Amino acid sequence: xxxxxxxxxxxxxxxxxxxxxxxxxxxxxxxxxxxxxxxxxxxxxxxxxxxxxxxxxxxxxxxxxxxxxxxxxxxxxxxxxxxxxxxxxxxxxxxxxxxxxxxxxxxxxxxxxxxxxxxxxxxxxxxxxxxxxxxxxxxxxxxxxxxxxxxxxxxxxxxxxxxxxxxxxxxxxxxxxxxxxxxxxxxxxxxxxxxxxxxxxxxxxxxxxxxxxxxxxxxxxxxxxxxxxxxxxxxxxxxxxxxxxxxxxxxxxxxxxxxxxxxxxxxxxxxxxxxxxxxxxxxxxxxxxxxxxxxxxxxxxxxxxxxxxxxxxxxxxxxxxx
Amino acid sequence: xxxxxxxxxxxxxxxxxxxxxxxxxxxxxxxxxxxxxxxxxxxxxxxxxxxxxxxxxxxxxxxxxxxxxxxxxxxxxxxxxxxxxxxxxxxxxxxxxxxxxxxxxxxxxxxxxxxxxxxxxxxxxxxxxxxxxxxxxxxxxxxxxxxxxxxxxxxxxxxxxxxxxxxxxxxxxxxxxxxxxxxxxxxxxxxxxxxxxxxxxxxxxxxxxxxxxxxxxxxxxxxxxxxxxxxxxxxxxxxxxxxxxxxxxxxxxxxxxxxxxxxxxxxxxxxxxxxxxxxxxxxxxxxxxxxxxxxxxxxxxxxxxxxxxxxxxxxxxxxxxxxxxxxxxxxxxxxxxxxxxxxxxxxxxxxxxxxxxxxxxxxxxxxxxxxxxxxxxxxxxxxxxxxxxxxxxxxxxxxxxxxxxxxxxxxxxxxxxxxxxxxxxxxxxxxxxxxxxxxxxxxxxxxxxxxxxxxxxxxxxxxxxxxxxxxxxxxxxxxxxxxxxxxxxxxxxxxxxxxxxxxxxxxxxxxxxxxxxxxxxxxxxxxxxxxxxxxxxxxxxxxxxxxxxxxxxxxxxxxxxxxxxxxxxxxxxxxxxxxxxxxxxxxxxxxxxxxxxxxxxxxxxxxxxxxxxxxxxxxxxxxxxxxxxxxxxx
Lengths: 322, 634
Fold this sequence. Notes:
Chain A has 322 residues and is mainly alpha-helical. Chain A is built from 9 helices and 6 strands. In chain B, the strands form 4 sheets. In chain B, strands 7, 8, 9, 10, 11, 12, 13, 14, 15, 16, 17, 18, 19 and 20 form a 14-stranded mixed beta sheet that branches. Chain B has a two-stranded antiparallel ribbon with strand order 1-2. A two-stranded antiparallel sheet of chain B has the order 3-4. At the A-B interface, helix 4, helix 5, strand 6, helix 6 and helix 7 of A face helix 2, strand 9 and helix 13 of B.
């Protein structure tokens, strides 16, 4: 099934855009049909749109599937929206009500049969729904975990205390202790989908150039550490889809997502890497994360270098205080 | 400095093809190549051109592709040095920084040997089909990911231009003197494929015996045949595919249950490995039968016992009827459900895996057994970078007093530790006894052209320990402040866990765990209450059934209650992988739930709801008719 990609993972903008396009499409269809003199009654149009959003789009288009309780909220919200649409004016409201009233009044044989059938089926359906929802069923519990919890003021790694507010990535600062803008994402550029190095033949851009030194050499050293230690979970493209991503929960962080390292300070990342899952505060579920406390495996320099590599490879620049 | 490299016989004559099956390792002539100052390996080549008098059935003769334009090669170099170099190395020798901790080892491009192809055995692959699909869909079961959505199709083609032009050094797609392409007409053949049926599956099960597939792949196809000492052309340990995990087939192209992929691999073989092409000694029809059989062995909703490969009509019908499992599009592995339901069982609990209550109608098909995904333990030293067991299947039943769990998992090797070890079973810090993790290595060649420091080279030489399985549940889970749990790795000091650990030497022990680095505490009195119902390794699969009392000591063990979510984690050891102590496979948190009976009041509430709605209906109708009367009057 590669011909149609689901909305995978956390993609709110894609979801909202797609829904908006669909609603726009419906509106245009509705308008054209009305022009052609075969307008769809608002009663049926409302039901159709509601069913499309809740029973089709949100149920089958998004992966992983949205839990029922969340879809129930969307269902209510969209029902409110549709009611506002159908009750825009008194005539519209009357028009909307007309099919309901005509079944209630049952003035002809068809509506009489329909009314009787509905009067019987609705209570039966409700009873069956109540019964099935009272059966013991065991869905996966939903637990809300904070992905980026508040960091501590200081962290002690390999016997040295780092103040997160003032500590600096030693491989990104110049001789005066300032963040050097040259050591930035300028060396990695967006090209089509992939972020690639600018010039493979330049020792400033290519970490594997034999003459690479300084910043770009440190990137390579960080990359070596990454591909000996981190890719098993975070993946060869740092997108959190490594070999074992399917085995662990919480899933590994996706560094290519604009919501992870791109919006964090390097010292925050340093703290998270050094202390790992077990070092998280309670809201980060330290008991469940398999993220190693890397201070048990790497030196401080190696941790800084691997962070350097992560920013280089994703083309992001860390958030800074100024 | 002289370096000797192993060379490969890259193509095989028909006779060689048939012999390959029996070969465990090729002995090849290598010759000395010198290391040029720039650090480029000149790799020698000794190979013969494929001599196929006429195309095997289903193949047509193809044309060699024209060379790539230099700009495209240059563009691909940029992609390669950003994304690929980290595993495949600067010279494409499969020796990047990541290589030594990977198994299977990254591809060495130099010899032009590629596994998944539409071309005849020993031939180069089709760049714009085979290699492009590999880059697009990745190679499941290895670290090679899918690059679709990460690199554009143009970028994927560019990088292939670079790899095939610059990094494949011993052969060339432009070498029309030595190279030929005989291409499997897969799409055309698929149009006339033998549709899967019970008969076809049964015929396939006979053909895998006739064609000696089972010699390597095992009687039930779990990859446990002549499994352990197989080597690839470079001398690295490899293992035959487990047909029950089609999502791990390298050539599955993110479409695990597609029979075409199996047909293709079977027709063209896997270059560089002992897996030959069967194009010359099987008809196209027979190949479809085999592909149908292998495809239906892949785990599906029903757990069909295939009785050591003696597939009867009934087994074939059951295999045919079973439906594929859902594949998670995010991971390309079976979907995981973190809740493991335990059903009530009347009377005594099952004694073995054949008890019909494991296959109870009350479970929707396939919902009774849950797949538990396993990853290597990489949190604390010694880390396990290769987990040879990547999933276990868990099922549970309970009666008034006991809960029983059946664990089944594929393990190519039965490992029982022979002789004593120096440490006690409860000890977990084994560094002083020499149990350490794989060093990053550095991908150095030795005199035999091997990378002796790599995991891929070491796979057959570990000290063998016991296979094992353990699960942990919190002690006093009733008092855990939600969502707090004891740490997944043997608990923590504040929240200890109850661990039941089975080892293949027949021991089943209860421990208390208080942290990853704390020795386990023997719980002798609870060990007596654990019951090892069955533990058997057969045809590449362990079946272990463990039962324990529901109500244990509230203070010291897990005191289970009906209808409660009880966090549970699983641990698994493969003795032939050198797994022992903390070198193991681990799972995420799952929940064991003993499903309580249907509450009697459910019926009453349902009836009340229905009656309530009838009343509402009556009110609406009355109101409407009153309104109409009013309207009529006015």
